[in-house]
């Protein structure tokens, strides 16, 4: 069954599963119930071929949790191969005052939490382009890569202009992790073209919009309408805002209805159609799915049993044509601290 999950090469000596197991949903403070045994779940994913995990220095408790999995894996007679992609997200309040020692301290902390000698990938995030030091911090990460502490250096949530600036400064970047979905096509504006030019690939989150792009929400009333139950986890709050950018709850329902018809042609699901569509786009190496527990493994495999044909693609193109397109480039809306997307972010999670 492991053969069901295709792989993608990021470098001649480095490949990943095209579904990456997301870690944010495992973090303290995300407010979704965790599995009883998250380490056993990680084994279940890897055994089925989903051997690439995403986490971050700021996902509270998650690097340490994956570290427990790595330690348990090492005890096995034949340890399983696994890739762990983490992030370096310096606190908003620290930007402009970073030193190489501070950067190295966070990288060392990730090494220690994971219990490894080299981080497979570090994805660099920078909250505020007006703050000085972004390129310098990236160069320090490249030096730590040279020193052997990091295998691949990547970005997350950089817009096209700032990605280009780092590439022109001579950095070698493997991937960029960005939001990309049927509701959020911002990478198509220019980032995908830039990545193609520079041999970078996309690792995509939000492809299921926190679960809104699934059968679960088809025909449901807007939970945020007056008198509604509201939303109980941070992903849904974040993606509900993106739905607004795409035209609102009715627009989501029209999209879900159309996707359901596509899914039914293939005995599949809305989530599989949504994820498969992203995986079929140029430069997309993988989608990162917020899979909380082993129950999600089968659903991941379903994505690759599905093949979208010409007719499906035409239906999906027409559905997309009816949606609004979020303003700006990748993460520009979220970067505005005073706007609705920026106001729900947590900016200073890195301090111990
Ligand atoms: N770089 C960044 O700024 C950033 C931001 C957000 C996320 N991420 C990364 O991306 C990962 C994924 O997060 P996301 O925000 O993109 O969430 P997502 O994958 O869009 O949505 C996750 C939710 O979708 C549902 N789901 C997952 N697989 C499904 C399937 N096959 N069929 C139906 N429903 C499914 C699950 O709901 P149930 O559990 O209720 O079934 C899950 O909680 C995170 O864990 C994190 O690693 C990165």
TrEMBL record:
GO terms for molecular function: oxidoreductase activity. It holds the Pfam family Aldo_ket_red. Residues 18-318 form the NADP-dependent oxidoreductase domain. SUPFAM superfamilies: NAD(P)-linked oxidoreductase. It comes from the Bacteria. Gene3D superfamilies: NADP-dependent oxidoreductase domain. InterPro entries: AKR (IPR020471), NAD(P)_OxRdtase_dom_sf (IPR036812), NADP_OxRdtase_dom (IPR023210). This is Aryl-alcohol dehydrogenase-like predicted oxidoreductase. It comes from Chromatocurvus halotolerans.
């Amino acid at each position: 069954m492991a053969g069901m999950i295709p792989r993608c090469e990021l470098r001649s000596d480095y490949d990943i599963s095209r579904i990456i197991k997301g870690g944010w949903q495992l973090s303290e403070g995300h407010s979704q119930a965790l599995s009883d045994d998250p380490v056993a779940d990680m084994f279940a994913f890897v055994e089925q071929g989903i051997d690439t995990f995403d986490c971050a220095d700021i996902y509270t408790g998650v690097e340490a949790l994956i570290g427990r999995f790595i330690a348990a894996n090492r005890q096995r007679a034949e340890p399983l191969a696994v890739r762990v992609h983490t992030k370096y997200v310096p606190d908003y309040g620290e930007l402009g005052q970073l030193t190489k020692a501070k950067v190295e301290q966070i990288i060392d902390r990730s090494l220690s939490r994971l219990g490894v000698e080299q981080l497979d990938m570090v994805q660099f995030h920078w909250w505020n382009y007006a703050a000085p030091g972004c390129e310098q911090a990236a160069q320090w990460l490249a030096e730590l890569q040279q020193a052997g502490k990091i295998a691949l250096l990547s970005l997350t949530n950089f817009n096209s202009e700032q990605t280009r600036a780092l590439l022109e400064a001579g950095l070698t970047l493997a991937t960029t992790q960005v939001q990309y979905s049927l509701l959020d096509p911002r990478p198509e504006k220019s980032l995908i073209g830039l990545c193609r030019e520079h041999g970078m690939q996309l690792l995509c989150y939000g492809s299921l919009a926190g679960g809104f792009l699934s059968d679960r929400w088809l025909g449901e009333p807007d939970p945020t309408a007056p008198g509604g139950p509201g939303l109980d986890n941070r992903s849904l709050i974040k993606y509900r805002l993106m739905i607004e950018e795409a035209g609102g709850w009715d627009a989501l329902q029209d999209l879900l209805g159309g996707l359901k018809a596509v899914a039914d042609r293939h005995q599949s699901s809305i989530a599989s159609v949504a994820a498969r569509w992203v995986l079929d786009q140029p430069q997309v190496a993988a989608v990162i799915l917020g899979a909380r527990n082993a129950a999600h493994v089968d659903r991941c495999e379903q994505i690759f049993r599905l093949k979208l044909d010409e007719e499906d693609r035409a239906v999906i193109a027409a559905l997309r044509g009816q949606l609004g397109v979020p303003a700006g480039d990748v993460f520009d809306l979220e970067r505005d601290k005073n706007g609705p997307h920026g106001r729900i972010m947590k900016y200073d999670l890195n301090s111990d």
